Each structure stands twice: as C-alpha cells, then as structure tokens.
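Saturday, quiet lab. Running sequence design on the structure tokens for the scaffold JK sent over.
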C-alpha cells in the first residue's frame, strides 16, 4: 500500500476537482489505487511534487478528464478467466431457463462492462445455449459502465485480432465479421445487449435479474461501498438468481442470502425469497475490530510477570497459602505454589501451558467456569465442596481471585485448591459447587467464546480478502500498464514501418535522380553548345566542354566563384551583367570579341525553380559567323 499521508489534503483537493467537473466521487474508491493513478500521471508529466500537479490541473483543466479516465482501469478481455466462463456456460446458463416458459425472457446485468468484451462473451454463451433448445426465449443483457469512452468502444463491437486471442477460431468465424484489420461482433449478438452509462454506486440498480455479472470492479471500491453495492444486487436479483464475481472478489456480509454455487469460479446463488430482499441501503460505516483481540495479543513482559508473581505470593503469605497456581488472561500457567501435582498434570502429547488442558478432568468444569466468571466480573469466587472423586482424594474447595498489575495493566487469575480438612481462610462469597449447573454455565461460556472467536476469524478473513483485493487491483494496474506499453510498442512499430516505406521510396527517387543527372552530364559533355550554369552567388555549377573556349575553366572549378576565373574574351562587365540579371530577372545579350577576333554572343538568362527558392543563371554563348 502506498503511503502518502502528508499529501492527504492535496489528494482530497484533486478528488474535489474531479467531483466538481465530472460528478464522480472517488472518495468511494480505494485510496491506494487513487494515489497510484495520480502518481502515474505525475510521472508521465515528469512532476515530482503534488502541488505542481495541482497547479497544472488548475491551468489545464482537461487534465481532470485524463486523470478521471486513468482512474477507471478498464482491463478486460473476452472470456476472462476461461474456466469460470466455461462453468457459467455449462452449469449456470441452462439452469436460468429451467423455470422459464417458452417465450419468456432471461435478464442479465454486466455491471462495469468496460469495453464490452465481457458482455459479448456472455451473449455468445447464451446464444450457444439457445441453439441447443427448441424453445424460443428472449435474452437481454444490460451492460453498463461509468466510462463513456469505454462504452463507445463497447457499442461499436469492433476489436483487433490481438484482443480476440482468447476466442476460439470456431467462435471467431461464427460470431464475428472481418472488417479490414478488425473484427466486428455480428449484429444478432450485438442486438442481445443494451449498453448504457450507469454508476453502480449512485444510480438505481436494475431489477428482476436472473444473473448479475460484476467482475473486477468491486476490488476498486472501499469496503463500505462494496457493502452498499451488494445490497443493491440483493435487491436486483430474483430469488434463485446468480451472482458472478471476479476471481479475487467475494460476498461481504450479505453472504447469508447466498450459497456458493461454484466457489472456485466465484459463482453464487441467491437462496432467499424475493420478498426478503434488502430494501435499504446499508450503512457504510464499519466498526473496528473488538479491542479485546488486540489486548490479548499483547506480549507479556517477563519482568513484569516475575514482579506480579512476587507480589501475589507476598499478598498470599500475609494470610495463608494453600496449594495453587497463577494464570494469565488466556489461562496460561505462569506459576504454581505448593504441591499441585495432584490437580495439574503435564499433558503427554503436545505441550501446552493452558491450564484447562492440564487440570485434572474432574476439576476442569469448575476451574473453567470460575476463571471465566472472575475475569469477566472481576470478583473473587469460591466453590465449596467440589467432589473430586476421580482421584479418590475427597472433597476440595476452589478459590479464584483476580490480581491486576497496575503498572503493566495485566490481569492474572489466582487459583487456590483448599482441601476441606484445611482451615478455611477465605470468607468469600461462597457457592456450593453443583457440577451439572456449572457444566451448563461452562458450556454457555464456551459457546459465547466460540461465537466471538468466529466473529474475530470472520474479521480476519475479511481483512485478508481485502489485502487480496488490493493485490489483485495492483495486478490489474500492472496488466493495464503492460497493455499501454504494448500499445506504445505497436505504435512505434507502425511508425517504424512508415519510416521504412518512406526510406524505400526515397531510395528509389535518389536512383532516378542519379540517372537523370548522369543523362544531363552525358548530354552536356557530348554537345557543342557553350553553356555555363552558375548560382545567384556566382558559384559555378556546371559547364559544357565548349565553355573552355571563352572562359579558362577546368573540371575542378565547379563550386568556385566565376569572378575568380580568367576569361578569354573582352567582356569586362561580365560579372556585373550577371549580377544585374540575378537582381532584375531580365536577360542580357552582349556580343564580344575573343583574343583571336572571333565574335561571341553571350546570352545571360535567369530561371527560378518551382517554389522560387533557387535562382540559376544560365550563360549561353554562341559563336557568330
Ligand atoms: C477492471 S474493469 C473490469 C471489466 C470487466 N468487468 C472484466 O472483469 O473484464 C473495471 C470497470 O469498472 C468500471 N467502473 C469503475 N467504477 C464504476 C462505477 N462506479 N460504476 C460503473 N462502472 C464502474 C470501470 O470504468 C471499468 O471499465
């Protein structure tokens, strides 16, 4: 269990914000789950401080929706717990139709149905049963959840193949239509179910139901709320109706109205008449464990025992010490004085310090009753004339006193065995010992003790069950995180596939471009045309071999500034003309002379690429005849 007590107020504030916006009171949910879910959101947002998270919620109000959905853990699957669904299909469903006349309906409620897998699994089981009968029945499944997003998915009835892994091929073929990469539940199965938004804690329950399926929802609720929900179910179910719970859930206090039908599968049958169904909401408050059970388990401190024994002996020495023993509140022997061998025997098999196991049989009723009375009433007791015939030792009196060690607040019983011949010392309230009467008294005491022990055990069982539920809900959260990881993994995989496809198409494009480039180079190399391509910064990009007639170009000049290269013609303004063309986007034509008096016409043009981002200057030179 996560401890986060110092942030109690902040957690309450977050819950109040959710309640205000979404109308859902998460106070009814187990605190540990809520804290874990909040913490998870904080981790996702990389926040270490809850105050920071509250500020974030206040600023980005949509976070409340996210957190709200996060808290409703929706882990589910088709035929979740295969064995239990098999038991339901084979042993329960046929029974639901036993008392129904043809044409009558069977009503089922799947409470907390999440994304619908549970409701469709039920519909498939019912449909399979209906195929085996000649009679016509109607089957209505009410499938409810508090989460709209889950319900939207449920009503669509569309699932991935991964989520159908627990559905046999035969059922898949029979009850699903393949739609691209998805499978949709067939119409006639979908029509058996009514999906609806319903809060199991605050909305009125459905009625006249033959089967309630409420699995893995109650584990998230506080015990007192579970109690309330169970009482609502009790109201909803027909007598002899069935309740199907999750594998780690069990009936709370209403168990007296139910009999386990298949305990392993958590299927219970209602056994009371409808008229006695609970009509009211049960009180949500629980009492704590009876304090006596905690005080009993207090460890005895050896020193305090010795001190108490010493004091007891001292107090007795002031009077007169017959034979006797001292026991603690659980009747364990602490000390004996005088020769008590004739009354107390060490048991032969399992050693126990419990006086009632060691006391001679013919004294056990008297000793048990007296100790019980003394510890309950706090008053000393003396039974006169106990007929200890079995030993042949004659009649004794039994005196039982209470000693309280004020320092350790521990109570001891002092038992004194007074043989009748001894001088009577204690003028206590004495009673003649009547074995039969005391036996009845003793039996009653033991019955009461048994009853309270039973209650105690029940409380312990409930505590264990709730820890089990806690573990189960943690498990569900882990399953849900795992599913999320799986989803993320799947998303990454699909992104990866896209990148791969993109990469392949880029490679193809590069190959095409390389080919085009080679073609251009070949054309340029083979042509007699004089062509020089430069960019707007005058860097040489390409040129034909003929260009060397007018400019001193070599292969390595590609990338160099044209202004740095010597020209073989009388054209001093070449660079300026190029700059003007780049700026004005207007061509310039000039006729110039070479050193050998050959005339050349320079045509300087500019062009831009498609998106205007790149300017190219093309210098086309023609030799004039
Ligand atoms: C772990 S899923 C269980 C789904 C299904 N019953 C199963 O066992 O596979 C719990 C579901 O209970 C729903 N839920 C939680 N609180 C609820 C409430 N107060 N009323 C109705 N549904 C609730 C959640 O939205 C979630 O879909």
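Result came back. Writing it out in full:
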């Amino acid at each position: 269990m996560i401890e986060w007590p110092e942030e109690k107020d902040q957690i309450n504030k977050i819950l109040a914000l959710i309640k205000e916006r979404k109308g859902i009171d998460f106070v009814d949910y187990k605190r540990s789950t809520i804290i874990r879910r909040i913490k998870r959101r904080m981790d996702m947002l990389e926040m270490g401080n809850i105050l920071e998270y509250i500020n974030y919620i206040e600023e980005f109000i949509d976070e409340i929706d996210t957190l709200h959905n996060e808290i409703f853990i929706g882990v589910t699957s088709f035929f979740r717990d295969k064995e239990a669904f098999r038991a339901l299909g084979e042993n329960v469903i046929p029974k639901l139709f036993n008392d129904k006349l043809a044409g009558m309906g069977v009503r089922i409620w799947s409470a907390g149905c999440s994304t619908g897998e549970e409701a469709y699994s039920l519909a498939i089981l019912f449909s399979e049963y209906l195929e085996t009968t000649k009679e016509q029945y109607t089957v209505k499944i009410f499938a409810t959840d508090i989460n709209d997003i889950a319900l939207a998915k449920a009503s669509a009835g569309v699932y991935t193949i991964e989520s159908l892994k627990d559905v046999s091929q035969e059922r898949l073929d029979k009850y699903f239509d393949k739609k691209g990469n998805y499978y949709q539940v067939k119409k006639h199965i979908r029509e058996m179910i009514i999906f609806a938004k319903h809060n199991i804690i605050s909305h009125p329950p459905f009625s006249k139901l033959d089967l309630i399926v409420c699995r893995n929802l109650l584990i998230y609720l506080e015990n007192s709320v579970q109690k309330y929900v169970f009482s609502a179910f009790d109201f909803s179910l027909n007598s002899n109706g069935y309740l199907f719970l999750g594998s780690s859930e069990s009936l709370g206090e209403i168990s007296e109205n139910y009999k386990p039908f298949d305990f392993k599968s958590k299927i219970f049958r209602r056994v009371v008449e409808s008229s006695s169904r609970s009509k009211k909401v049960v009180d949500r408050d629980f009492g704590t464990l009876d304090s006596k059970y905690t005080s009993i388990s207090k460890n005895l401190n050896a020193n305090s025992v010795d001190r108490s024994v010493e004091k007891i002996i001292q107090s007795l020495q002031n009077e007169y010490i017959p034979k006797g023993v001292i026991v603690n509140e659980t009747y364990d022997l602490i000390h004996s004085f005088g020769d008590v061998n004739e009354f107390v025997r060490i048991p032969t098999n399992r050693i126990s310090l419990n006086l009632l196991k060691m006391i001679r049989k013919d004294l056990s009723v008297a000793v048990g009753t007296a100790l019980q009375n003394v510890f309950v009433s706090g008053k000393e007791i003396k039974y006169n004339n106990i007929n200890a015939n079995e030993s042949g030792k004659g009649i004794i009196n039994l005196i039982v006193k209470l000693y309280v060690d004020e320092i350790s607040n521990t109570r001891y019983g002092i038992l004194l065995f007074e043989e009748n011949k001894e001088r009577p010392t204690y003028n206590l309230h004495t009673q003649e010992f009547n074995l039969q009467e005391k036996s009845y008294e003793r039996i009653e005491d033991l019955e009461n003790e048994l009853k309270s022990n039973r209650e105690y055990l029940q409380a312990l069982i409930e505590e264990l069950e709730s820890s089990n539920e806690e573990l189960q809900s943690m498990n569900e959260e882990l399953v849900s995180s795992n599913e999320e990881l799986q989803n993320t993994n799947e998303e990454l995989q699909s992104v990866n596939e896209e990148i791969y496809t993109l990469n392949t198409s880029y490679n193809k494009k590069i190959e095409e471009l390389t080919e085009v480039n080679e073609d251009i180079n070949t054309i340029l190399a083979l042509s007699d045309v004089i062509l020089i391509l430069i960019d707007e910064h005058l860097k040489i990009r390409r040129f034909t071999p003929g260009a060397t007639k007018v400019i001193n170009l070599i292969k390595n000049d590609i990338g160099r500034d044209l202004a740095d290269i010597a020209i073989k013609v009388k054209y001093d303004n070449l660079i300026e003309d190029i700059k003007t063309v780049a700026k004005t986007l207007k061509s310039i034509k000039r006729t110039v002379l070479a050193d050998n008096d050959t005339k050349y016409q320079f045509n300087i043009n500019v062009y831009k690429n498609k998106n205007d981002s790149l300017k190219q200057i093309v210098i086309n030179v023609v030799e004039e005849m």
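Notes for JK: The chain is about 40% helix and 20% strand. The domain at 527-624 is CATH 3.30.450.20 (Beta-Lactamase). Ask whether to fix the surface positions before the next round.
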